Amino acid sequence: MSIWWSLHLRREAASVPLARRLLLGTMETAGVDPDVSYDLSVALSEACANAVEHGGESAYGGCSEAYRVTAYLDGETCRIEVADSGPGFTAERPAPTPTRTNADAEHGRGLFLIQELADHVHIGNKPGRAGAVVSFDKILKWRKDAPLIAV
Predict the structure, then answer these.
(1) Is the dihedral of CA 47, 141, 36, 6 positive or negative?
(2) How far apart are CA 118 and CA 98, in angstroms?
(3) Burial 40-71 (b: 16+ CB within 10 A, else e)
(4) What is the distance between the terminal CA atoms of the chain, rounded to a whole angstrom?
C-alpha cells in the first residue's frame, strides 16, 4: 500500500492545524496505530510552525508566502517533508542543531521534538533551489483492523 499527498500552504498560523488534520485523517483511514499517528502529527505541526515562522525572506530579497508539505505512507514507513522558499541555510546561517530546552520554553524546542518523535530526521536545503527542508520518517505500526495494512 502506498499513499501520498502534497499541500501548498500559505505561511499563516491557520495552515498548521489544516496539515495536521489531513495527516491524522489519512493515517486513521489507512489504519495506522493512533500513538504513531499522534507522534507524527506533533512532529508535522512543529515543522510547519517553523516554516511559517522562519521560511520568509527568500534568497532573492522578496518574501515567500507559501510552503509545501508532502507526506508518503509507503509500506511500513511514513515520510514527511516540509519545505519553505526562504533563503535556506548558508555558512553564515547554518542549519540549526536540535537541542533540549526547558519544557515550558515557548521557542526553540520544535526540532528537538521532531527528532524525539521520528526515527530519522534530515534538515537541509532544497536541492537546486532556495529554501529549507525538514524531512523525517517513522516506522508505522498498524491497528489489527487496518483496512489498508501494508503487505
Answers:
(1) positive
(2) 13
(3) bbbbbbbbbbbbbeebbebeeeeebebbbbbb
(4) 7
- Other Cβ atoms less than 10 A from the Cβ of 133: the count is 22
Mean pLDDT in order along the chain per 10 residues (151 residues): 90 95 94 96 96 72 78 94 86 69 64 94 83 94 77 53
Residues with Cβ < 8 Å from 101, sequence gap 6 or more? 108, 109, 112
Taking the alpha carbons of 102, 124, 10, 138 in that order, is the dihedral positive or negative?
negative
Q: Is 85 exposed, middle or buried (0-12, 13-18, 19+ CB in 10 A)?
A: buried
Tell me the pTM: 0.85
Q: Given this model, what pLDDT does residue 150 score? A: 55
User: Which pLDDT does position 110 carry in this prediction?
Assistant: 86
Q: Grid coordinates standing for 110?
A: 520544535
CA–CA distances in Å: residue 150 to residues 58, 75, 77, 126, 133: 40, 5, 10, 30, 27
Angstrom distance (rounded) from CA 30 to CA 5: 13
H runs (alpha helix) in 4-133: 15-30, 34-54, 110-117
Answer for the pair 133, 48: CB distance below 8 angstroms, yes or no: no
